[in-house]
Amino acid sequence: MTQTKQNKKTIDIIEFTKILTVLLGLVTLAADVFSKVIAEYCVYYVIGENSSTKVYMLMAVIYFASIAAYALLIFLFMLLNNLGKGKVFVKDNVKYLKAVGIGLLAITLVAALGAILVNSSIFLIGFIMLFVALIVFCVQLVIEKAIEMKDELDYTV
Question: How many domains would you assign to the chain?
Answer without folding.
Answer: 1
